Amino acid sequence: MTPRLLALTVLSMLAFAGNSLLCRLALKQTAIDPATFVAIRIGSGALVLWLVLRLRKPAGRVEGNWHGAFALLAYALAFSYAYTQIPAGTGALLLFASIQISMILYGLFIGERLSITQSLGIGLAAAGLVILMLPGVSAPPLLHALLMIVAGIAWGAYSLLGRGAKDAASATAGNFIRATPVALVLFLLHALTSRVGYDAAGVAYAVASGAVTSGLGYVLWYAALKGLKVTHAATVQLSVPVLTAFGGTLFLDEPVTGILIAASALILLGIALVVLVKKRPA
C-alpha cells in the first residue's frame, strides 16, 4: 500500500467515525433536533459535493438517481433519530454490522453462495447483534437500536444502487442534491408540528458532518477504493466501530462496557470471516 493510499484510507475511516461522533455530540450536547440536523447535513453535503464537481477539470456532470436519493435520506433520518438515545460506539457497531449483513444477504438472494466458514461468520455476527440488543443495563433502547439497523439497511441499499455508477463521486453528489429539497420539506413539516431546536454549536456540528465527514469523506473514500481490493475495502471498514467507541469515550465520556466488547468481538470476527474468505461460485 502506497503512502498516498494509506493516507486516503485512514482519513476515510476517520471521517466515517466522525459522522457518528458529530451526530451524537450534536444531539446529546446541543439544542438541535434530528430533523434540523438532517436538513443541514444533507444540504451542506450537497453544496460541497457540487463544488467538488465544479472544480474538476473538466467540470464533472451531476449523476445519481431518485432511488439513491431516497435511500440516502432514509439512512440519514434513521441514523439521526437513533443517535438521540444510543451511545456513539454502539450505534456505529449496529450500523456497520447491518450494512455488511444486509449486503451479504442480498448477495445470497441473487444466487451467490457462501462457504462453511462464511456461514459461520454470519452466525457469529448475528449472535453479536442479539447480545448487543438483549435487555439489560447496557443494552440500547430497542426502538432506537432498530432505527440504527434500518439506517444500516438503507445505506446497504444505497451502496448496492450505486455499484453501477460510472463516477461514484458524481452519483453521490447527484443523490445529495436530489435529497436536499425532500429533507427541507420534511424539516418544514417537522416545524409545523413540533418545536424546532437549534443553536450555534448544533448547526456547526451538522455542517461539519455534511460538508467534511460526509461530503469530503466520501470523495476521499472513492479515491481510496480505486487502489483497494474489494475484500480489503470491506475489512478496513470494520475499524470504524472501534474508532467510534474510543472517540465516544474520549469526547462524550461514554463507557466501553463488557457487552459492547463481547458483541464487537463477535460481529467484527463474523464479518471478517465473510469478507476475507473467497465466495463459492453460484
TrEMBL record:
Q: Does the keyword Translocase apply?
A: no
Looking at the UniProt entry, the stretches that span the membrane are 35-53, 65-83, 89-109, 116-136, 142-161, 173-192, 204-223, 230-252, 258-277
Q: Where in the cell is it found?
A: Membrane
Q: What is its main location?
A: membrane
Topology class, membrane: Multi-pass membrane protein
Q: Which InterPro entries match?
A: AA-Vitamin_Transporters (IPR050638), EamA_dom (IPR000620), EmrE-like (IPR037185)
Origin, by domain of life? Bacteria
Q: Which UniProt keywords apply?
A: Membrane, Transmembrane, Transmembrane helix
A Pfam match:
EamA
Give residue ranges for domain EamA.
Answer: 7-133, 145-275
Q: Which GO terms describe its cellular component?
A: membrane
Its recorded name reads EamA domain-containing protein
Q: Identify the species of origin.
A: Achromobacter xylosoxidans (strain A8)
What is the organism lineage in this UniProt record?
Bacteria, Pseudomonadati, Pseudomonadota, Betaproteobacteria, Burkholderiales
